[in-house]
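Incident log, support desk, overnight shift.

02:14 A customer reports that sequence design results differ from what the structure should imply. Their input is reproduced verbatim below. On-call engineer (initials T.W.) acknowledged and began investigating.
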């Protein structure tokens, strides 16, 4: 609704005046050359990371400046520089300029946009930009969304960050092949997760292994007809019971009891939502609320109403946001690497059904009752392989191997 209102408004954006060339421009965080597609102006800084991979905030702050898109001269990150750009309320140097003089309504709806670059210190914004880039490399758009909505005061659209590449993401390896980059826990056990989409008469098994930087490789995929064969395949793949997750969307009681007997976990996908966790972050002695795309675990007794009720056969179950998991999966699949490898890949000998099903979801344009357009994930054809990989993404996120939360592990 807000997007439609802004689109039909006068779209007046605040423009600052360069103290060097005296030309007006919209103070974006990044200015892209229309001909080359390269960044040529805006916030300029060096990306300097600490040994743990997080932004080195003091070092980055010393390099921050703003480059005029008109004359390409730099301004230092000082209050005086921002005053020279925008002026004061009494003596403004900037003005609002409309990007849509032919607004749809009569009389026109007047829209005003004023972003943080015009008046706020640039170093914190640059640091947030570095963190958002790191988070995108781990499949998480949330920090980028906050930059666009809070710092840019702009409309957010996640679709532009996803690429519809339907070529097989074959990584040049075979299923069950070992990988020297696979992350290990403190007990030297591999971070290898089984994501199982449960159907009426079979199980769709996908196994994926993860590196610390969120790069991952497919380990195995098969459609199996019985729980016994499923257990054998998981043991063959070296997947621990505690790192095995089954979807409870269909026949939840049967699935939960099966998991209780084998020490497996359960998950349940929901619609678009966030889950609040009370977490201890580094430097905080009290828990603070943090958003995640999965819930806290619920302990469930699947044997209620039987003689086994109240025994030790309980299971842990997590709810998760299915659209967010699909978005994280799509982003991980689109991340380029400098070493010639795929960031998210499949095995050369993976079955054909697997490659078809991981591409089942698309961003579909739809309209609500007011005629306003929006986008959501929609499946075309069997999607069980994609569901299994979504479960794997959730498991990797909980293990601090994917998502922005993996950059600042909490307890």
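02:41 Re-run completed on a clean worker. Output:
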């Amino acid at each position: 609704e807000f997007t439609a209102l802004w689109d039909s408004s006068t779209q007046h954006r605040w423009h600052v005046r360069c103290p060097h060339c005296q030309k007006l421009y919209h103070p974006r965080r990044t200015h892209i050359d229309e001909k080359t597609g390269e960044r040529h102006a805006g916030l300029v800084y060096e990306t300097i990371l600490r040994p743990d991979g997080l932004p080195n905030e003091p070092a980055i702050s010393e390099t921050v400046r703003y480059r005029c898109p008109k004359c390409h001269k730099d301004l230092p990150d000082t209050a005086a520089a921002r005053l020279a750009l925008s002026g004061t309320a009494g003596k403004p140097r900037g003005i609002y300029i409309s990007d849509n003089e032919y607004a749809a309504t009569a009389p026109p709806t007047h829209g005003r946009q004023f972003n943080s670059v015009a008046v706020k210190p640039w170093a914190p914004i640059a640091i947030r930009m570095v963190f958002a880039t790191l988070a995108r490399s781990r499949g998480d758009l949330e920090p980028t969304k906050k930059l666009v909505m809070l710092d840019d005061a702009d409309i957010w659209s996640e679709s532009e960050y996803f690429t519809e590449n339907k070529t097989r993401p074959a990584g040049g390896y075979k299923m069950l092949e070992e990988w020297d980059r696979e992350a290990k826990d403190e007990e030297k056990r591999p971070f290898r997760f089984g994501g199982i989409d449960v159907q009426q008469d079979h199980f769709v098994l996908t196994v994926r292994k993860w590196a610390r930087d969120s790069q991952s490789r497919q380990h195995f995929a098969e459609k199996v007809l019985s729980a016994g064969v499923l257990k054998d395949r998981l043991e063959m793949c070296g997947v621990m019971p505690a790192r095995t997750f089954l979807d409870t969307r269909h026949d939840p009681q049967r699935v939960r009891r099966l998991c209780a007997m084998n020490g497996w976990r359960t998950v349940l996908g929901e619609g678009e939502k966030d889950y609040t966790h009370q977490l201890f972050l580094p430097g905080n002695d009290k828990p603070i609320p943090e958003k995640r795309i999965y819930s806290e675990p619920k302990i469930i007794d699947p044997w209620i109403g039987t003689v086994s009720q109240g025994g030790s056969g309980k299971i842990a179950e997590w709810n998760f946001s299915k659209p967010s998991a699909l978005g994280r999966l799509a982003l991980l699949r689109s991340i380029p690497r400098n070493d010639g490898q795929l960031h998210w890949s499949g095995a050369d000998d993976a079955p054909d059904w697997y490659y078809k099903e991981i591409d089942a979801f698309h961003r579909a344009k739809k309209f609500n009752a007011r005629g306003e357009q929006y986008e959501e994930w929609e499946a075309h054809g069997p999607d069980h392989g994609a569901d299994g990989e979504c479960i794997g993404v959730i498991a990797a996120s909980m293990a601090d191997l994917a998502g922005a939360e993996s950059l600042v592990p909490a307890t």
